[in-house]
Description:
Layout: E1 9-12, H1 18-29, E2 33-38, H2 41-55, E3 59-63, H3 69-78, E4 84-87, H4 102-130, E5 133-138, H5 151-171, E6 176-183, H6 189-202, H7 206-216, H8 225-235, E7 247-250
Parallel strand pairs: 1-2, 1-4, 2-3, 4-5, 5-6, 6-7
Helix pairs in contact: 1-2, 1-8, 4-5, 6-7
Amino acid sequence: MDLGIKGRRAIVCAASKGLGKGCAMALAREGVDLVINARTAADVDATAAEIRSATGVKVTAVACDVTSVDGRNRVLAACPEPDIVINNAGGPPPGDFRDWGRDEWIKAIDANMLTPIEFIKATVDGMMKRGFGRIVNITSSSVKAPIDILGLSNGARSGLTGFVAGVARTTVRHGVTINGLLPGPFATDRLKGTYRSRAQKSGKSFEEEYAAGARANPAGRFGTAEEFGAMCAFLCSVHAGYMTGQNILMDGGQYPGTY
């Protein structure tokens, strides 16, 4: 299927590895020119070179922290009129809500709610004026099924989801859609780190814990960044113009509910 986005321009946040990289590569394979960012220059430069080599598209790497005003400004300076924005940022740490103070909450909200909103605010009017735009917020399956130890993430990402639910209905008639893409367990460095911690606590090997986690999923495995990226690319396509304000759960069937 031709997604109809060849020659478009995209910002993909936190794209040096994991799900962000999967989305960047999928868009690049459709002929989309990219501005990608990550905090570590060596990582984002290496990913940019890999994507250029694999696809031939223009890729600009920006090493910055997009949760800061300066970082967002640098990304937007590199791509002031994007057709596509993929909002993505690492989740806050797990813990007990009794241990979190204002500083922890503000940091989580800044990263996982306010930063995506700032990118939407900076780009959506231009998209509407040009008659095409796709914004995809990578959030978490915890938006659908909250995880008790991830209260910071549950709260911040749910706040973003509620905000988008209203805004997305005002932009779609102008050709701009805003949707959420909710990952469950995917085979990323972050997930592997979680299972290494579990292995240390249980006394089992990492391989045992990781395999058990994969078996516990209804799919019998963890997701891949490539299939996540493919879904992201579809949401950015000309074929998804009638879908807005939605939250697409990708978790291998782990969520047990009907709705």
